């Protein structure tokens, strides 16, 4: 059962992968994270340590828990290291070809025919990832939110081939082991959150583009007027403007809704390398 998994696998140690590793290890479960790129593995480990120290400073994690949590994390460079896992969460870059090749390889290396293969994708249809394997009934979407240790939600996304048993095991793991609130969505572009959130972010970009209000005022309006922790442009920078644009493109391709068309300003910013926090500049300057 995934809900009492002894070792969970995570593929990819970027922002989302390292966050997923953190919540699994903090839940008391051993985790092997596969990151083929040595530099990315080092940065992921540093991000994990920084986040854990922040949790200690905020009183969310006991100081004496730090070493045991880190001790539960093993970093590997090959998917073969996951062969005995009963649950693997894929969190590599949002590239369909890359994700499909990871799923095909996981299908080959996972010894147990019962193992659950989950994807943290925010926009690629789960059905396409399932079709890359010979066990489509074991494939499911498990979409986490950034920062993973802070955000309480997991979107659980079965595709047409996902078995009821797989859904239940992934649901039990996210809910009972990771203590996340689980919402279910059908396998449609944007699932629940991004289908609501991304048109809102695009509308904020359009407001700035049309001169209706400044970046700072749009954000201040939603923070002070609606108690959002971040305004939409701040949040777009946080998510990554390239990611926002690529989710918008996926939504538009499926829904043909003009609210999902990426505004020219967003496209130009992405083409200019202004990607938000990750590149140091987006709607705001991000130092350090
Ligand atoms: N572990 C546990 N708790 C942690 C932590 C960690 N590693 N790091 C921070 N926290 C806690 C803090 O203790 C604090 O808790 P309290 O409220 O109980 O005091 C809380 O998290 C907030 O942390 P900070 O005070 O350090 O930071 P902040 O107040 O500036 O908030 C933020 C930062 C959490 C990012 C907040 O601005 C926020 O919620 N922003 C919105 C984020 C959001 O919408 N994310 C979803 C993006 S969409 C997505 O991810 C999906 C997609 O597909 C695009």
Question: Taking strands numbered 1, 2, ... along the chain, how are they ordered across the largest sheet?
Answer: 3-2-1-4-5-6-7-8
How much helicity do the residues have? Answer: 40-55%
Task: Give the CATH H-level superfamily of the largest domain.
Answer: NAD(P)-binding Rossmann-like Domain
Structural class: alpha/beta
CATH topology heading of the largest domain: Rossmann fold
Q: Supply Rg.
A: 19 Å
Query: What's the CATH architecture name of the largest domain?
Result: 3-Layer(aba) Sandwich
Shape: globular
- C-alpha end-to-end distance: 43 Å
Quote the average pLDDT.
96
Low-pLDDT segments, ≥5 res: none
The first-level CATH class name of the largest domain? Alpha Beta
Provide a count of the helices: 11
Task: Kindly estimate the percentage of residues that lie in beta strands according to DSSP.
Answer: 5-15%
Bound molecules: acetoacetyl-coenzyme A
Main sheet makeup: 8 strands, mixed
The secondary-structure element order is EHEHHEEHEHEEHEHHHHH
Strand element count: 8
Structural summary, described in words:
With about 290 residues, the protein is an alpha/beta fold. The protein has 2 domains: about 5-185, Rossmann fold (3-Layer(aba) Sandwich), CATH 3.40.50.720; about 195-270, Orthogonal Bundle (N-(1-d-carboxylethyl)-l-norvaline Dehydrogenase, domain 2). It is about 45% helix and about 15% strand. It has 11 helices and 8 strands. It has helices spanning about 15-25, 40-55, 65-70, 95-110, 125-130, 165-175, 195-210, 215-225, 230-240, 240-255, 265-270; strands at about 5-10, 30-35, 75, 85-90, 115-120, 140-145, 155-160, 180-185. The chain has an 8-stranded mixed sheet with strand order 3-2-1-4-5-6-7-8, with helices on both faces. Strand 4, helix 4 (about 95-110) and strand 5 form a beta-alpha-beta unit. Helix 1 crosses helix 2 (about 40-55), helix 7 crosses helix 9 (about 230-240) and helix 7 (about 195-210) crosses helix 10. The protein starts with 6 loop residues before the first strand and ends in a 17-residue tail after the last helix. The structure holds acetoacetyl-coenzyme A. Acetoacetyl-coenzyme A binds near residues 149, 150, 230 and 243.
